[in-house]
Write a structure and sequence with these properties.
This protein has 24 helices and 14 strands. The chain is α/β, with parallel strands linked by helices and about 600 residues long. The chain starts with a helix and ends in a 10-residue tail after the last helix. The chain binds adenosine-5'-diphosphate (ADP) and magnesium ion.
Length: about 600
């Protein structure tokens, strides 16, 4: 049985059992479904995209209060010109709640997400607290007593009055959401989202607007919370501020962490475990201890510590591992057999693709680059060499938009790139690798390389969720596959990139840059850590790319490697260009010999 078949079977069993299960079980399942919906958003936000929020309960509250107000306030109905008990009101409440939550999340995200570190969690705590007190203090929302008398939802003339009926809606919404989120993660947009947690500098260099993606994920999580709040309100038929306070916000986060914050099904597992545990501890503990009190909170906390101590990834991965032997993993389809992406035409041979003039970069008192002039032409390999600390990596950052020069200018083809981000450089046809490898270690080589083709796809989130992006996705993966094979990593295609040797990870970075079909390729020490044979293969590859018309700028310490492949060499020392010319000229340049003297690189004179 495959995992998918197992999932479908479980869903079918649940559906069949739904009519027979006792009322209490159904009620519990209903709550689990509602919580899991919120937690699924948190999994996306925290586990996948690396942003922590304590304030999801407040978004649930927005969804609940929005529908409560629209359904009960006479002003709302008359404003809309509807009868006071119209069946349309809950749906208007739903839309209002979603819009409100999205707007608030967007504003909150704009303010906090651009800042790094702990501002977002702190911001969400402040937001969670203030909204709770706002709910309690607003007269028209019923103050601390809340709003009662919400109507039951009606769906196409069918009234969802009982828990059993409403629970069906809850679980249908939950399962559809999980399906959509799963699809989203399994797409071009999903690759970009996954890079938010640990690879933002790298993703920007692949053309991903990470700030925008972060806000979008934040809004997505808020929408799911709000949706859950809407159903919650119509299940309870009244709302008050208590279920939306900061404690509950923290509980949602616990559910995500215990279930496994990196896994969508972890949301369901976490919500189920914590809901059931709370329920049973509340019942059992007082009888066990012989006196009443909130003991469950203490035991709960201890159990939580234990789980976090033993299973830092949450429980889902363990469960999945346990069932692993019985369930076949999804077969890796030969994705990418079909479809080709539009090809970029390389600039004509000999044309200056990237030109840097008078680049200066100051770090406090240190002048890391001083009046550096350098250009890279189509169809040539230009090597930038120099002792450690000469300013080569700094220069790379200047000419790829990762950092701005203190003065000087950079042109990419016809465009003046002053002040532009690395995203703009990527869009303009620049591909690069990093000296300190930046890959997503727990994603496959294929996934990592496909991220490099980000700008060659168009499909958005909705298309990805509904799987309307499959042709484009196949083409993107096909391109990634071709580049991986071309770079000689075909056998490692589906391995986790983090498990490869460092030298191979560098090759993954090259393949990733190539997937973006760059006109100019910047390689920062690509041969470091490669065995001799692989170095030769890399040299072959670079020469082939050059012959195809690519412009290549390479920083490398291995002189033999450099001198074999470079057409021109520029030598940097203490941030200044001390020599420039063909490999033969540079090797006999007295200044260069001087700079390298001390036996650091005897190879230079050899
Ligand atoms: P290379 O790549 O040639 O070995 P780098 O460009 O990494 O050299 O570094 C050049 C000099 O600039 C070094 O002295 C380094 O310490 C300094 N440097 C690089 N980045 C920074 C930074 N972000 N802040 C301060 N100093 C830096
Ligand atoms: Mg360096």
């Amino acid at each position: 049985m495959t995992r998918r078949q197992f999932t479908l079977l479980a869903v079918a069993l649940l559906l069949v059992a739904w009519g027979f299960l006792p009322e209490f079980t159904i009620t519990m399942l209903n709550y689990i479904g509602l919580y899991a919906l919120v937690v699924a958003g948190l999994v996306m936000l925290t586990g996948v995209a690396g942003m922590t929020s304590f304030g999801q309960a407040a978004f649930v509250g927005l969804g609940a209060y929005a529908t409560a107000w629209f359904c009960t306030a006479p002003a709302a109905a008359s404003l809309l010109g509807l009868a006071p008990a119209s069946g349309a009101l809950p749906w208007i409440g739903l839309v209002a709640g979603l819009l409100l939550s999205a707007a608030v999340a967007w504003c909150l995200g704009e303010v906090t997400l651009r800042l790094s570190g702990h501002y977002l969690p702190l911001g969400t705590i402040a937001w969670g607290l203030s909204l709770y007190f706002l709910f309690g203090n607003l007269e028209f929302l019923g103050g601390h007593t809340g709003i009662a008398g919400l109507p039951a939802l009606s769906l196409g003339g069918l009234e969802l009055r009982s828990v059993r009926e409403l629970g069906l809606l809850t679980w249908a919404v939950l399962l559809l959401t999980l399906w959509a989120l799963h699809n989203l993660l399994d797409s071009r947009e999903g690759r970009a989202i996954r890079s938010l947690k640990s690879g933002r500098v790298m993703a920007e260099s692949m053309g991903v607007d990470t700030a925008r993606y972060r806000i979008k994920v934040f809004v997505l999580a808020a929408l799911l919370a709000s949706l859950s709040g809407w159903m919650y309100a119509h299940l309870q038929r009244f709302v008050n501020p208590t279920p939306f306070n900061l404690n509950i916000g923290i509980e949602y986060l616990f559910m995500a962490v215990v279930g496994g914050a990196g896994h969508l099904w972890g949301a369901v597992l976490g919500a189920a475990l914590i809901t059931l545990m709370k329920q049973y501890l509340q019942d059992i503990l007082p009888t066990l201890l012989g006196s009443s009190g909130n003991f469950e909170v203490i035991v709960f906390g201890l159990l939580m510590l234990l789980v976090l101590q033993r299973f830092s990834e949450g429980l889902w991965p363990n469960l999945a591992q346990f069932f692993g032997p019985y369930l076949r993993p999804p077969t890796v389809r030969n994705k990418g057999a079909a479809g080709h992406l539009a090809a970029r035409k390389l600039p004509e041979r000999g044309r200056i693709v990237l030109g840097a003039s008078n680049i200066c970069k100051r770090f406090g008192g240190l002048l890391a680059n001083h009046d550096v002039n350098l250009d890279v032409r189509s169809g040539e390999v230009h090597a930038l060499i120099g002792p450690n600390g000469a300013g080569k990596s700094t220069f790379f950052n200047m000419i790829s938009g990762v950092d701005d020069p203190t003065s000087g200018s950079v042109r990419l083809l016809d465009a003046d790139m002053r002040g532009l981000s690395s995203r703009a450089f990527a869009a303009g046809g620049l591909g690069r690798t990093f000296q300190h490898v930046r890959i997503l270690g727990n994603r496959s080589v294929l996934d990592n390389v496909a991220l490099g083709a980000h700008l060659r796809g168009r499909s958005g989130w909705i298309a990805a969720m509904l799987r309307l992006d499959r042709d484009e996705e196949a083409a993107l993966l096909g391109e990634a596959r071709r580049q991986i094979e071309r770079c000689g990593l075909g056998a490692q295609m589906h391995e986790m990139a983090g498990a490869l040797a460092l030298g191979q990870q560098r090759i993954v970075e090259i393949a990733r840059a190539l997937a973006g079909q760059p006109s100019v390729l910047l390689l920062d020490e690509p041969a470091a850590g490669l065995p001799y044979m692989d170095k030769q293969a890399l040299g072959q590859l670079l020469m082939q790319l050059r012959d195809e018309g690519m412009a290549i700028l390479v920083v490398e310490h291995d002189m033999e490697f450099v001198m074999n492949i470079a057409d021109r060499v520029t030598v940097l020392e203490f941030g200044e260009v001390i020599a420039h010319g063909s490999p033969a000229e540079v090797q006999v340049n007295p200044k260069v010999v001087e700079a390298y003297l001390g036996g650091v690189d005897a190879g230079l004179q050899a």
